Amino acid sequence: METATLEKLLRDLLEEVQLLTVQTKVDALQKFSSDFLTSDLRRKMYDAFDGERTLPQISDTIGCKINTLQVFAQQLVDKGLVDYTTKGNARIINKSPSKIALYYATKELGDT
Question: Judging by beta carbons within 10 Å of its beta carbon (0-12, 13-18, 19+), is residue 4 exposed, middle or buried?
Fold first, then answer.
């Protein structure tokens, strides 16, 4: 096959995969919200995970205790629901819809 045909085929396949995963991600994010974002504070904390600010910076911005934020962040990290990096001794958390979708897909497979 020529390169242009292969590129078109790959783009078409990628579009199909994206369409198939959209509903899976939407469903998983709804489950995640009802399972983990159970209060206004938890929702604020999760919304603040932007992959740039450290937990102390987020704590100051949203006005919550650092320990509360650390416990919540650790729960999400332990379950593989977010991405994170470290900056010195501080953690930087980033949302990951793909990890959330994978978590719930794996959970469903384990239940069957």
Answer: exposed
Could you tell me how far CA 59 lies from the centroid of its own chain? Answer: 19
Burial class of 33 by CB neighbour count within 10 A (0 to 12, 13 to 18, 19+): middle
Reported pTM: 0.78
Q: Which residues contact 5 (CB under 8 A, 6 or more apart)?
A: none
pLDDT digits (tens, 9 = 90+) for 57-77: 999 999 999 999 999 999 999
Cα gap 61→99, rounded to integer Å = 26
Specify the DSSP element, H or E, that contains 86: strand 82-87
Counting every residue written for the chain, the total comes to: 112
